[in-house]
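Re: weekly structure request thread

Next one in the queue (395 aa):
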Amino acid sequence: MDYEILNSKLNSGASVKIGSIPYITLILSVAFIPAAYVTVAAVFVAHWSNKDMFFISRDYEFKMLKVYIFMGVLFSQFKAISFVYAIIYILCLFSYYMFFESMSEEEAVKLKKIIYIVSIIAFFIGIIQYFNPGFSIPGKWVDANQFKLNKRIYSTFFNPNIFGFYINLLIISACGNLDFKKINLSLAVFLTGISCLFLTFSRTSWISLIASLLIASIFNKKYLKYAAIVSAVMFGMDYVFGIGRLNPSSAASDSSFLYRIEIWKACIQIIKDNPLTGIGFGTLFKHISAYSTVVKTNIEHCHNIYIQSLTETGIIGFGIFLFIIFKSAATIIKNIKTAQDNQIWITAFIILSMALIHGLVDSVLLTPQILLIMSMYAGTLKAIKNEELRMKNFK
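Done, posted below.
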């Protein structure tokens, strides 16, 4: 089915068809993220050339996000760097808009099947990485003095922690309608996903997934079972293979954790010097050496989404950041209570919980690959909700 931007509200002589673009974009976001952004950018330019000012007439949350992006550039001392990040955020906003305008519940079901297949392929790429004798990883990804570990898989995600976060998304989604008595895509995603999740050796991903599944048991007790399975696999295999990733004493003296503490200490000092407006998007590496003798200048992020938001956009931007989180959580919980079939909203609640827990010790949520995927997911949820409202009013 072909869709036109703005549901064919553009003039027929100057319309921009995006029928298969959401599918292509989501597939590329997993397979090769630069191509996904190029695709979104091309549609954005075509959209803009047709004078569809999607930035103007959006909801309140959308407007707040625009203010957030504007602040991240306006008060930066290195505006060229921050502007590049702003473009990424704008394209993510546009992808949200694109999915919101083009998706329906029926289309979302088709998209889910496609992304399951693409993800299983990505999972197998990760497994092949692990068993490839020539595969190696940067030394900074693991403390060899603390752990019996020399490989961590990342598939097409460039980093094990980013891959682990994505695997969590897929496992949570699969748990929504998982039936161990039926061999289907959900079961395949769950089993291959858990295997890959272990091989990322991403403790943050392991713990955030288990914690979010436990929290979800408030709404459905079946998630206790899934939390138990994930816990048994991660803790059990970590112990059996003698890796030690979940050993509290090893974790406490792990160089990556100690390095995070140094980053947080430096960021707190930066926040004190730039409390209201922050230092701008993507410029931490320009400032960090003045506040720390330990942290290298090529640091990319704060390893904490809350500290990163405060550092980059100050108290004002952080307030917007928290507003978006609370507004999203309130909307999801409301839909869990009121929707006739609330499974999609329970899944959304688990994903949000996982992201917020994960964000306590890493900034994966704010990386370009995950941010684009989450924007498309949010747009799809918005589209489904609007479709439900239309059907309700029609009845």
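The chain has one domain: 5-394. Confidence is low (pLDDT under 50) at residues 1-16.
Next request, please.
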